[in-house]
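Re: that chain you flagged

S.,

Sorry for the slow reply, it's been a week of failed gels. I finally had a moment to sit down with the sequence you sent. For the record, here it is as I used it:
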Amino acid sequence: MQRTYEFTSESVAAGHPDKVCDRISDEVVDLFLAEDPKARVACEVLATTNRVVISGEVRGAEAITEERVRQRVRETIRALGYTHRGFNAEAEITYLLHEQSPDIGTKVDTGGAGDQGLMFGYATDETEELMPAPLVYAHRILKLLADARKGPKLAGVLGPDAKSQVTLRYVDGKPVGVTRLVLSTQHFDRKLSSEDVREFVRPIVAAALPEGFMPPDDDFFVNPTGAFTTGGPEADTGLTGRKIIVDTYGGAAPHGGGAFSGKDPTKVDRSAAYAMRYLAKNVVAAGLARKATLQVAYAIGEEKPLSFYADLHGTGTVDEEKLANVLKQQLNGLTPRGIIDGLGLEKPIYARTAAYGHFGRPPEDDGGFSWEKTDLAEKLKKLF
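Prediction finished late last night. Pasting the structure tokens below so you have them in one place:
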């Protein structure tokens, strides 16, 4: 194992064009699930200059009309901070949602997986969140930046579109400092230079990092291209599901390729990835390993997983094969219905996941981020 190395992860703000689309997609999911927990939604969104295209397949309550979806889209755009000419709540909306194919529903309605595919889960003890540190810091920078730009000092100065990238140095597998950091953030005054923006964001970045982790100025890149006054879908077309590494582990773990946003929990791309995170996090929380990667695979319409895999990266205190046998019995044998019921996924809890990552967030009282609970850890300790 390499003892000294660097690793980089990135994050994007809630106002990034792709995240705008993820958020709208998940708002549609929540709209349907709030009316009918058994609703089926596969919603894809494209956003560009003053235009939003919503497409996909749905099945649910007749109360969810085209007009209600359009209204939710406009509310979302406004909430994200887009009120200027190039992209705002008055954008033209092309509505292309239609009924889900009955062929899909035949076996999914009786508990089968909503699609084929493979899903991964990961956890590491290098942060309190049991997540990779570069991604935790990249998300934290943008969350603090979003809070700050709505405050009195930066209101009207910075826009909703932003990206961060953090390169972390590791020694003996432990993060010891940030070697390079990139932050690009939209600003409304063209007269502001990169240096001006750097001074605005420096205290925000410092607050997001552990003490002593701030990189030197030569390795702290802010708006490297200069002005960043045109942002969001006006500047760069957005699509649902294009930030799958930002959404998961920042490149520190494998990814099965399936996006999360816009999908109801019968789609195992989403629900099984949540289940794998839940199990991996509990393995590390139980002290059975410092790092864990899990994989599961499904066939469309089938209940039982096709395969299950566990890798403790040489950090485990238990036999991996025995652990895998225990884990694949959890959540009713990792059936789609077992995962949905065990994690309480038939709720309108998804819009909040669309920015700052689906993992490493505190579980919430209404069932949000239920897959981040560590309520299985004690059981695993007793079994081993």
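What I noticed first: The chain has a mean pLDDT of 95.

Talk soon,
D.
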